Amino acid sequence: MTGNAIEIDRLTKTYAAVGGEPPKTALDGVDLTVRAGAIFGLLGPNGAGKSTLINILAGLVMKTSGKVRIWGFDQDVNPRQSRASIGVMPQELNMDPFFTPRQSLEVQAGLYGVPKRERRTDEILETIGLTDKASAYARNLSGGMRRRLLLGKALVHRPHVLVLDEPTAGVDIELRKMLWRNVRRLNEEDGMTIILTTHYLEEAQEMCDEIAIVDRGRIVAQDSTQNLVGRLDAKALVVTPQEDTPIGELPGLPEGVEMSRRPAGAVALTYRRGEVTAGQLLDIVRAAGISVADVRSEEPNLEDAFLALTSHADEETSGEAGAAA
Predict the structure, then answer these.
(1) Alpha helices in the chain (DSSP H)
(2) Cα Rg of the chain (Å, integer)
(3) What pTM does this model have?
(4) How far apart, in whole angstroms, are the C-alpha atoms of residue 264 and residue 269?
(5) Is the pLDDT of residue 68 over 90?
(6) Which of 70, 42, 38 is nearest to 56 (CA)?
(7) Domains of the chain
């Protein structure tokens, strides 16, 4: 398919009032498109609305208003086709403890109406590295193996879109590498569109072509990963002095330049490239009588962009707490 795998227009979800609490708007007029064949990151702080959005895509939560199209199928017009176009690997380890991995995959395939002759149980077991555990009860599998099984269950019906909800939370490095290797293969060889939510921002920066950041039920940014990081004008110059010339205060630092301490006596001078140059900062360091052993620059990363776009939520929360106190 060319074009968009996911198209969301003015999506809203409001949960009804419960126990005297006012109604809660989890999604507030979300517009979102995901290009077919992309590895797409959906990021946001806790409570931003990511899980609600994913559950609406999966057909587990009813939206309040708006339009959702998955692989060209409108959820309201073609609900069965839209659900069949997406597979979701949930964050929670929810599975029947008395089913084996083989049985779990067979049952899941049956729920999606996959005929027996078209099922790929053995192929999926090999893909997720559970061939040797195919007949073991799920209750006897390790946490990492259970997470692999969740991935397998999401693949039984050959979805066009695969959603990975915090797939590497609490898993070891080996499993994380295996998961990303399989994800890249599914994307490159099968053309599967991948939507990833994660709190490991370095993973998102490495894996995703494009990223959307959700904050308080709204999309506050959507762009290519490179462009999103490139929006930041901040940069850091890290200066490590010779052992006999520790860095104290640096008089004459331009307004807006922030100095922070690093290990081994180094300091980081954070500045905006449009206002100050690295050469000017080095001149100030040398003018202070500092002998420089090493100097390097640090570019902004996805974590910096994420914090710049969502940090106001923390500020308002702390302000409300202070007012309540």
Answers:
(1) 50-57, 79-84, 101-111, 121-127, 143-155, 173-189, 201-207, 225-230, 278-287, 302-324
(2) 24
(3) 0.78
(4) 15
(5) yes
(6) 70
(7) 4-85+159-229 (3.40.50.300), 233-299 (3.30.70.1560)
